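PROTOCOL LOG
Step 1. Enter all chains and additional molecules of the complex.
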Amino acid sequence: MAEGRRAVDGYDLYFGPVHPGSGNFGVKLTVDGEWVVAARADPGYLHRGFEKLMEYRTPMQNAVLSDRLCILESLNWNLVHAEAVDRLCGTEIPERARYIRVILAELSRIQSHIIWYGVLSKALGFDTGFMVAFGYRDYVLDLFEFVTGGRVYPAGYICPGGVRRDVPEGTKKRIEELLVKMETMLREFEAYDSKTIAARCRGIGVLELDDALRLGATGPVLRASGLASDATRRTRSTTTSTSRSRFGRRATRSPGRSSDDGRSRSRSRSSGRRSIGCRRSRSLRSSRRPRGRSRRARSTCATRSPEGRRPST
Amino acid sequence: MTAAMENEGRRTELLERIGSRFDLDLRVADDGTVWVSVGEQKLGDCLAFAKREGFDHCSAISVTDWPEEEAFELTYHLWSYGHKLLLTVTSRIDRGEATVDSAIPLWGPSAGIHERELHELFGVEFSGNPDLAPLFLENWDGPPPFRKDFDWRAYVRETFYEEGDPRERSYWD
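Step 2. Run joint prediction.
Step 3. Record the structure below.
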């Protein structure tokens, strides 16, 4: 019997395709009993060969196709494609179109951060966070629909030469209203922040700076590991002569942070959301929150707390 | 002197160093990137030099296929956190014997994964890369599918559709 059991120990197990938060992929596991002794990612489920598809199409057709590169920030992919074609053709983009491009790309980025919050909540077993985040994301999608005609996929709104059409009348007002909603959302997320969320992130997935650099980490992940790096500020110099190290400026570590872990990455994202360039949100944050409103926020989070009681925020 | 001016000065010095080392005239483009084209023989040297000069992040490696010129164009996108500069190194290699040294000794696994992808999709060999197993495709025995001379439309038609089937006829018209 013991021999027979040994014979089935150590086998290959295909785990997937799975959709862990976002993106389909599989993992080829080698297991020994219940121990995973080796794991190899199989990312082929989402590789659709866009480069090859684009070979058969014109740049304007590819603008539509470029939406589909990634569901999380389709307008940014529009922008990347359009900028590449513009540069190849030497096209001069009208100033108004440049502004529209940036505004939409930034809203798309905010929307992507909201998805991150939702997916993180889901991973933490906090489904309310997921629902609320995706609810707020819909406000951004409403605006995308208003401007581009598409909610998730803007059908090549940002296209070579500029944008497909001017923004409709009333867009500015709607964006300002949207930013107010984003500020409410941030307050709501802050109210959710609890010991349970902290406990489920702290010390999890520690990524030291050396490893982050070796593995090519970027964006919020890299910042959470302690290096101030932001591609959107590429052209601005954030380096000072006193704080410069080999890699430039080190990020300020948040007080009480123990390591470069999931908690740190979560904080890094939150600060990313705050620096969304939202004029309205800055002015609101600096103002004192009305007492009554504060109570309402607390009573809301009492029913939505992942730990089933009011978080000690 | 402001920090920005100091940074700009360091950038200029860096470009002069790279330019004189490889006999190139370099300048920062409007979008803040620097493009360098080197011959196949100098590619390894140039990449190693860039790494020593602080280009610590290998953002991407890509291949462009030029079938008429019998060449693959390798493109390395390198980012320096210190200089805040994107350096793009390109080099043309022979399409028939597409072999180039791996960049793993310089940038580790972040270069390795790109090489694995390019090996699968274009058939470029990266000598020194210990893991060039297929990344995306399962049971594929055709030519590297991203080469320009691979006609995926014809492949799909012939593999998945019947010319005699009236419902699939339109794919053959």
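Step 4. Note key features.
The longest strand of chain A covers residues 11-18.
Strands of chain A lie at 11-18, 25-32, 35-42, 158-159, 162-163, 244-245, 248-249.
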